[in-house]
Design goal:
The chain has 430 residues and is of the alpha/beta class. Helices cover 37% and strands 16% of the residues. It has 15 helices and nine strands.
Length: 430
């Protein structure tokens, strides 16, 4: 009877939110929902992090991981070298890529949230054939949540974690793509998860390093990001408000144009333990930016008992470990009153700083993580700051499906930026 009730409840949730398709596919694969029938989802698992248990997560991590190569294992020196400077690069032949696409790994200099030199890793993908007019138009890719441990870097995954959910389509359409891991993923330091400004810095500095490592990349560039990466792509837009790089053409933020506090509240309201790892990763990110944070001030004893052995050891495995705790037993009731939590939330508010360049904000009408209401609030903030913003909402699509559903509009918007066309805006008239 419990299984029947579970199947009925989950079927209702599927109808309400396509975001759950990835979660349900895991439940089916594990044998928990043998009677739930879904249409085949050949593309839906691109950036899937979630697991029902630590053991299931370990199996997922092991199945898609690449071995640590000498390129990644050798620690790069930290100096006061200019940001964006290339440390080293190598041709990568161990990824599963569409035919004709070439890949290169790079290490480069960036800065932490506390303005200290750091090394970040990335992968540069180049299309097949000869570049038009001598150079490939360049996209910087800002990925969604992959975990916080070093081995959770997308560059350590055979299919680059996102594959057909974000990377391969762009390259097949004639764009070179530099996909950062963010500092602390792929390199030894801590990852400042969901810190839109330092993550955005990692994205910005990946572009000049990629141009040194791979020939024929354009100076002009656009940033595209999803989820965590959608948030950090807005960090890029705000940082460019100060930098004002004339070759920066604009920002595409997919399912990340939301208020961070609202996003966290959405996870907690959903009360789906399979999502609990997102909260634990975020606390790790706060402590990366503010090392003074005492975990006992925000996490329950149950969460602390598995925290250290989970967040920094495994990706889907870490997510699965936190699925064993009820959502309401992860954070203490007064967690928002902590001063470091408050400082982090204040620091990472999209629209708080002026943006540079036009923006395309992409949202799913059924996204339970970055909600339509929160996205609208951020849209209004950017419009009030006189940014040129086009906001597209896709009814019936959730957090991951909206990446696919919006692809044609993304590509049209990006092509128009490289063509020098005026950027559209649906901001209300002042």
């Amino acid at each position: 009877m419990r299984l029947k009730g579970l199947k009925k409840a989950m079927s209702q949730r599927i109808a309400a939110s396509p975001d759950l398709l990835c979660v349900i596919s895991i439940l089916m694969a594990a044998g928990f929902l043998p009677g739930v029938i879904l249409a085949p989802q050949p593309l839906a698992g691109g950036a899937n992090l979630f697991a029902l248990s630590r053991q299931a997560g370990e199996e997922i991590d092991a199945a898609r991981a690449l071995s640590l190569t000498q390129f990644c294992a050798t620690e790069a020196p930290k100096t006061e070298t200019a940001t964006g400077a290339l440390v080293r690069s190598e041709t990568a032949t161990d990824y599963v890529l569409p035919p004709g696409i070439t890949a290169a790994r790079i290490l480069y200099h960036t800065r932490t949230a506390n303005n200290v030199d750091a090394i970040a890793s990335a992968v540069v993908l180049a299309p097949y054939g000869q570049p038009p007019a001598g150079e490939w138009p360049l996209l910087t890719w800002s990925h969604g949540t992959s975990g916080v441990a070093r081995e959770c870097a997308p560059s350590r995954v055979k299919l680059l974690f996102y594959h057909w959910e974000g990377l391969y389509e762009y390259v097949l359409m004639g764009y070179a793509v530099v996909a950062t891991d963010y500092a602390g993923l792929g390199t030894p330091d801590r990852h400042a998860y969901l810190d839109m400004l330092s993550n955005g810095m990692d994205v910005i500095h990946s572009a000049p390093a990629a141009r040194v490592a791979v020939p024929h990349l354009s100076k002009m560039w656009v940033v595209v990001g999803h989820s965590q990466g959608g948030l950090s792509s807005l960090g890029v837009a705000q940082l460019e408000g100060t930098i004002q790089d004339p070759d920066f053409l604009g920002t595409v933020a997919i399912a990340g144009a939301s208020d961070l506090e609202d996003g966290l509240d959405s996870v907690l309201r959903a009360r789906m333990p399979v999502l609990n790892g997102l909260v634990a990763f975020w606390v790790y990110g706060v402590q990366t930016v503010y090392p003074e944070l005492d975990l006992k001030d925000v996490l329950t004893a149950k969460a602390i008992a598995i925290y250290n052995a989970s967040v920094a050891d495994g990706c889907s495995a870490a997510s699965g470990a936190f699925a064993a705790i009820p959502t309401e037993e992860v954070l203490l009731p007064d967690w928002k009153k902590n001063k470091y939590i408050q400082q982090f939330l204040a620091r990472d508010q999209p629209g708080k700083l002026p943006a540079y360049g036009p923006l395309l904000l992409v949202g799913g009408g059924d996204d339970i993580l970055f909600t339509d209401a929160a996205s609208r609030k951020i849209f209004q903030c950017f419009c009030s700051a006189r940014a040129r913003v086009q906001r597209n909402v896709y009814p019936g699509l959730g957090h991951d499906p909206v990446v696919y559903g919006s692809l044609r509009d993304q590509l049209n918007w990006i092509a128009a930026r490289f063509a020098g066309e005026p950027a559209p805006s649906n901001c209300p008239a002042p």
